[in-house]
Structure formats: C-alpha cells, structure tokens
Amino acid sequence: MTISNPKGLCEVSQGSGHPVLVCPGLRKGQVWVDHYGSKQTKFIVAHDSALSCLGLTQDGRLLATASSKGTLIRIFNALDGSLLQEGFRLKIVMVAVSLQPKFERSPKTKVQA
C-alpha cells in the first residue's frame, strides 16, 4: 500500500535484466524502490512535499524526482538511496522525466549556433 497517488506515478526499468519498480512510498515525498532481481526494497525520502514526477534510467540505477512544490529536481542512486545531485528549477508543471545515462551525438546530428 502506498500514499494516495492520483497522478498514477509509477516507473519500471528492465534494461539490466533485473526489473526495478518505483512509485510513491508510504509517506509524502517518499519513493518506494523495489529491486526484483535482488529482492530488496528501499524507501527514499526524496522531498518534504508530495511527488509530482519520477523517472528511472533504463538500467534502473538512477532515479530522478520532482516535488509538487516545484523548486527541486533530485537525482538518487536507486540501489543505495544516496543523493547524487540536486538542481533548482522554476515553478513549472513537470509532466515527465527522461533519464539517459550517456549522450552520444550521432554523425547526423547538427548543432546550430
């Protein structure tokens, strides 16, 4: 059972062959991280206010969260729950988070100045 989740926040990552599921935890601002491969569950206190968005990398190692307050985006190690990075943002409605572990520019990519 989790806290009320009217936005249906939930993310699953299967890229490494070991599924990881994240969703709101039991308390406001908390994330429930379930590592099915290792049968471990972790609760990460991500924010003081309710979650507005969350996302995982394809391999399930990094977790990004944003709160309903709209001031912070935080990146956590999904394996041990440690905070890796925190960034401020303007008060906007965050609809989705997409995490890419590595950016590779293809030969066809053009950058305009």
From TrEMBL:
Q: Where is the secretion signal located?
A: none
Query: What stretches pass through the bilayer?
Result: none
Name of a matching Pfam family: PROPPIN
Superkingdom per UniProt: Eukaryota
The protein's organism comes out as Malus baccata
Keywords, sorted A to Z: Repeat, WD repeat
Q: What is this protein called?
A: Anaphase-promoting complex subunit 4 WD40 domain-containing protein
Q: Could you tell me which InterPro entries the record lists for this protein?
A: PROPPIN, WD40/YVTN_repeat-like_dom_sf, WD40_repeat_dom_sf
Taxonomic lineage of the native organism: Eukaryota, Viridiplantae, Streptophyta, Embryophyta, Tracheophyta
Q: Which family does it belong to?
A: Belongs to the WD repeat PROPPIN family.
